[in-house]
Amino acid sequence: MSMIFGVPVAVLSGQLLIGVINGAFYALLSLGLAVIFGLLKIINFAHGAMYMLGAMVTVIMFDAMGVNYWVALFLAPVLVGVFGMLIEYFLLRRIAGQDHIYSLLLTFGAALMIQGILTNIYGVSGLRYSIPDLFKGGVNLGFMFLPYYRAWVIAVALVVCFGTWFMIEKTKLGAYLRAGTEDAQLMQGFGINVPLLISLTYGFGVMLAAFAGVLAAPIYSVTPVMGSHILIVVFAVVVIGGMGSIGGAIITGVLMGVIEGLTKTFYPPASSAVIFLVMVVVLMFRPAGLFGKEA
Amino acid sequence: MNETVKQTDIQKAILEQQQSEHRKKMILNGVLLVLLVLAPLVMYPVFLMKILCFALFAVAFNLLLGYTGLLSFGHAAFLATGGYTTGYLLSNVPWLTTELGILAGTLMATALGFGFALLSIRRQGIYFAMVTLALAQLVFFFFVQSSFTGGEDGMQGIPRGELFGLIDLNDNLNLYYFILAVFLGCYLLVQRTVGSPFGQVLNAIKQNEPRAISLGYNVNRYKILAFVISAALAGLAGSMKAVVFQLASLNDAHWHTSGEVILMTLVGGAGTLLGPVVGATFVVNVEYQLAQGPLRDWVDPILGGIFVLTVIAFRSGIVGEIQKFMRKNLS
């Protein structure tokens, strides 16, 4: 069997694949965070909880009503997105204009509530959800085995990421969004409903998180605490990429997944910490992040 | 002529008011002190010590959030570092007296705080919060991987030892009065710091950082110093906590602990001296009472709810709201 740096190719490429998949989730989640932060200046501490809700809703809908994966892929993000908009409307809106710190604390409290309530109902042991029939099995690429579902996750995550970037940076709606955050009063003067725009943006960011949750349901263990750890990693990803940079969030997300996968191959004990180490190094040399502009 | 008379009158009135306020404060502080000294006669000392440790933790945190305007989301790292260092030394170095062990834990947390500050101080607001959070997570993983921490079980059976080699701290009352003394010392230190010219500069940074810079202050140096003091006191709280419970656990390093100290400070009143103490007392009591009753599984959601409610409805916290009320109605 061929080796690279003393590691079998199959092991290395297997870890790389896991890295790219994790990276796809990091990218989707940090993208949502970056959209919410970049446009609303809200640090959404509830992002992990929304990701978890996406996965939980998928499993619960399947168990209770037999809703299949394809419907859930659409329905779960919409439901969670509406839930997010309710949080925005009833809670976040009340502290608009206050120090941004308060939005962080508010969403932190909300995340504690959501996670705690679901933990009481469903416990912390994982719920089971199987891979949709269409994606069972995989293909042997010669040097490694590629499960179809994982290939699907990577492909769809990339499409969604690129689509979001395109919508915000290149379309008219995106221009409205960016302008609304630049000067809300002026935009309102032009007859644009800025509060609605804000609700929709928050809802959209939350939808992205929930969408990642649905994608994760068949391959990760679905528990009420699944969002709690990944959230901190995603924060680090956003800091590394540069806050508010949407393209930066996507690229850094995938990159960090790969780096994590490589570390797991060559020096496993450091694998859970490596992203934070990268963050420290980046902060020393580029405090605004790799793709951020110096504030 | 007339105007100078008015001026002196006004000055006199202000002085008198300040004196009467000062007197009121002294009376309040005296009453609180007596209560703290007598408390172990009616309450379980270990529970009181837990409150004191968390109160010190929150007081330390408040120096940053309340008086410098920096939200650190990584203070759990200092609490845990203090606890683990003290625990490790007291367990493994037989000749070390307890106060030296606590001192060593505090110093370790201080050094860590300096490192945190250097890396994070150039970022502001929520950026600062996220950087400190990620750094603390790095520390958390270090403790998870290290064998000396005892992993999930934590570091158990830390000996309480003897204070100065003389006073037996296995006696709960002895330990209580030692911790009370340290707590009061730190409280006075923070009070003094906040009132000092240094504290005034911190306040200026909180109010308007660009202005403080334009006045010629080296803002980053002030912020780093404030951060280091805060980290040191948080480490001290962790060290004492390890001695009280004879246990240092991963829980202390988890980011939920960083969230908890924010909650304590916010509920009590950020930017008030007594606020964090009241907040810590409140939160520790709520957790304890809930754990006893039928709602024992609902601690997290209830704390989350308190968090949301505090942020939305009374951001000044318990002490802050009382102060507002008194200012409005009693003067």
Automatic annotation (TrEMBL), chain A:
<keyword id="KW-0812">Transmembrane</keyword>
<feature type="transmembrane region" description="Helical">
    <location>
        <begin position="68"/>
        <end position="92"/>
    </location>
</feature>
<feature type="transmembrane region" description="Helical">
    <location>
        <begin position="42"/>
        <end position="62"/>
    </location>
</feature>
<feature type="transmembrane region" description="Helical">
    <location>
        <begin position="12"/>
        <end position="35"/>
    </location>
</feature>
<feature type="transmembrane region" description="Helical">
    <location>
        <begin position="226"/>
        <end position="259"/>
    </location>
</feature>
<dbReference type="InterPro" id="IPR052157">
    <property type="entry name" value="BCAA_transport_permease"/>
</dbReference>
<keyword id="KW-0813">Transport</keyword>
<keyword id="KW-0029">Amino-acid transport</keyword>
<keyword id="KW-1003">Cell membrane</keyword>
<protein>
    <submittedName>
        <fullName>Branched-chain amino acid ABC transporter permease</fullName>
    </submittedName>
</protein>
<keyword id="KW-1133">Transmembrane helix</keyword>
<dbReference type="Pfam" id="PF02653">
    <property type="entry name" value="BPD_transp_2"/>
</dbReference>
<feature type="transmembrane region" description="Helical">
    <location>
        <begin position="104"/>
        <end position="129"/>
    </location>
</feature>
<keyword id="KW-0472">Membrane</keyword>
<feature type="transmembrane region" description="Helical">
    <location>
        <begin position="196"/>
        <end position="220"/>
    </location>
</feature>
<feature type="transmembrane region" description="Helical">
    <location>
        <begin position="266"/>
        <end position="285"/>
    </location>
</feature>
<comment type="similarity">
    <text>Belongs to the binding-protein-dependent transport system permease family. LivHM subfamily.</text>
</comment>
<dbReference type="InterPro" id="IPR001851">
    <property type="entry name" value="ABC_transp_permease"/>
</dbReference>
<feature type="transmembrane region" description="Helical">
    <location>
        <begin position="149"/>
        <end position="168"/>
    </location>
</feature>
